[in-house]
Structures are given as structure tokens and as C-alpha cells.
Design a protein that fits this description.
The chain is an alpha/beta fold and 291 residues long. The chain folds into 2 domains: 156 residues, Rossmann fold (3-Layer(aba) Sandwich), CATH 3.40.50.300; 125 residues, no CATH class. It contains 11 helices and 10 strands. It has a 5-stranded parallel beta sheet, with helices on both faces. Strands 7-8-6-9-10 form a 5-stranded mixed beta sheet, with helices on one face. Strand 9 and strand 10 form a beta hairpin. The two termini are 23 Å apart. About 2% of the residues have low confidence.
Length: 291
């Protein structure tokens, strides 16, 4: 079991970090009392469930100060129990945190009528020192925007380029309109149309006879290779940009032969490179998953 403890100063991006871990497949709990972490682990161990294989919890200044002081003891107990624990602590310059709070107009958890925002930030820094001192990874977000922080978490998880991106390959017919939500649309109507071959007309791009017909034309292989090369080159870049899914649409006139054939071939070519390859033929009503 892997447990990531996300802590840090308010206004440094802890919520964004936890959300990123959730997108990476972690079961996330924010602001959990430290006294409940061990019971959570015991429950996860006694009730095997894939969702508990990776857990991320948020611990910060909203916790009881007495619990925070006992953080070293709680951390040692978890590791002694065989839990793979990683502590991530987010920090930033006081001036940056002040600016972020002034921009969002949110209330600092330790500020109040008797405590100014600047005092609350300094108080929180002292309060969380027991956690910061034991952090496996101290991440300064002073110069980061939301995208930078997500990318940093993604890189630390070691998942960049590992296939977390889910790809939907969609065939469609232009005569029925463009599909909604497509990130890329490729027009394959330049290929010979099996529709004009009487014995192929009732078949689809998944039938061997149609495949043989299309593969007999050099343009089919060339177009398939060009689209495949483009996707293999650029999809990892989208993955590194924190995308979890992307839709690639290929269209021919009726969405029955050429686009269907190419989508099936692309799914085979990309299989294993990403978290999930989903094939959908809009005009045929078929959906398939290629993990």
C-alpha cells in the first residue's frame, strides 16, 4: 500500500495537489484527523480493495495542534506497519501567500479578529514545522501556477509518459455531422470508397473483405502511417500537460468503411502506450476497450 501525505502552508496549492493525485488514481481524503489514519489503514488492509492500493491524505493547520506535534510518532508507526509513506510538503514565500490571499479574498484558517493574515502565515509555518521537518519532498510553489503544480506532482509520481492518458478513437460519417467534443478530426474521404463496390457495400471496415480492398491501395497505408506517426509524436505531449483523456475522430462519408477500418488499425497500433484505448463507431453503434 502506498500512502502520500500532502501537507503544507495554506495558499500553496494543497487542494490542487490532492486533486492531481486523485486524477492519478489515488483514493484521496482531505483534512483527515491523524488519529484516524491508522484505523483507515487497518480497514484498507482487512478489506482488500483496489481503490486502497494508493491513498493520499491532506494534513494541515486545520488539524488539532496536539495531533500535529505527534506527527513524527504517527509517521514512524505507519512505516513500522509496512506502509510505503511519502510526505509531500508545499511551501511558498510569505509575500506570495499574502498576494494569493488578497487576490482570492479567502480567509486564512488561523486568521481572525486578533490575528492578522501576516501573523497567521507565520504562526502556521511554526505549527507545521514537525511535518515540514520530516517531508520526503519539500516543494516551493512560489513561482508556480496551477498548471506548473500539476505537472510537478505528475513528475514526482513518476507517471509522466507511463500511459495514464485514455484515448478515444471515434469513427463517424461526415454526412451526419461532425462529432461533439473531438480534440482532433482527420478527414479520410480521400481514400477509395468501398461503398461503390456492390459486394462490399453492406459490410463495414471491420470485415476482412473491406480491409483487403483498402489495403490494396497504397494511399491507405500511407495515410494510416501518417496519422499514427502524428499521434505517437504528440499524444505524449498532451499527457505531460496533465490531460487524462483525448478524443481522436476519423471521418469518411458514411462512417461505415474507411473511418471504421482506420480506427481499428490505429487502436492496434497504439495499444499498450496509454492507459486505455476506447474504440467507438458512431454510425455503427459499437464501443470497444483496448487496455
Amino acid at each position: 500500500m502506498r500512502l502520500v501525505i500532502v501537507s503544507g502552508l495554506s495558499g500553496t496549492g494543497k487542494t490542487v495537489a490532492l486533486k492531481q493525485y486523485e486524477d492519478l488514481g489515488y483514493y484521496c481524503i482531505d483534512n483527515i484527523p491523524l488519529d484516524l489514519v491508522q484505523p483507515l489503514i487497518d480497514h484498507a488492509v482487512s478489506h482488500p480493495d483496489p481503490r486502497y492500493a494508493q491513498v493520499a491524505i491532506g494534513v494541515d493547520a486545520r488539524a488539532n495542534p496536539a495531533e500535529i506535534k505527534k506527527f513524527p510518532e504517527a509517521l514512524n508507526a505507519l512505516r513500522a506497519g509496512g506502509v510505503d509513506v511519502h510526505v509531500l510538503f508545499l511551501t511558498a514565500d510569505d509575500a506570495v501567500i499574502l498576494r494569493r490571499y488578497n487576490e482570492t479574498r479567502r480567509k486564512h484558517p488561523l486568521s481572525g479578529p486578533e490575528v492578522t493574515l501576516g501573523e497567521a502565515i507565520r504562526l502556521e509555518r511554526r505549527l507545521l514545522e514537525p511535518i515540514a521537518a520530516l517531508a520526503d519532498d519539500l516543494l516551493d510553489t512560489s513561482a508556480m501556477n496551477l498548471h506548473d503544480l500539476r505537472t510537478a506532482i505528475h513528475a514526482r509520481h513518476g507517471a509522466a509518459g507511463s500511459g495514464r492518458l485514455a484515448v478515444l478513437l471515434l469513427s463517424f460519417g461526415f454526412k451526419n455531422g461532425l462529432p461533439d467534443g473531438a480534440d482532433f478530426v482527420f478527414d479520410v474521404r480521400n481514400l477509395p470508397n468501398p461503398h461503390w463496390v456492390p459486394e462490399l457495400r453492406p459490410l463495414t471496415g471491420r470485415d476482412e473483405a473491406v480491409a483487403r480492398y483498402l489495403e490494396a491501395h497504397a494511399d491507405t497505408g500511407a495515410l494510416l502511417n501518417d496519422i499514427g506517426t502524428f499521434l505517437r509524436r504528440w499524444l505524449p505531449a498532451f499527457q505531460a500537460q496533465d490531460r487524462s483523456y483525448i478524443t481522436i475522430a476519423l471521418g469518411c462519408t458514411g462512417g461505415q468503411h474507411r473511418s471504421v477500418y482506420l480506427v481499428e488499425k490505429l487502436a492496434q497500433a497504439l495499444k499498450g502506450q496509454f492507459a486505455e484505448i476506447v474504440v467507438k463507431h458512431r454510425e455503427l453503434g459499437g464501443v470497444g476497450i483496448h487496455p
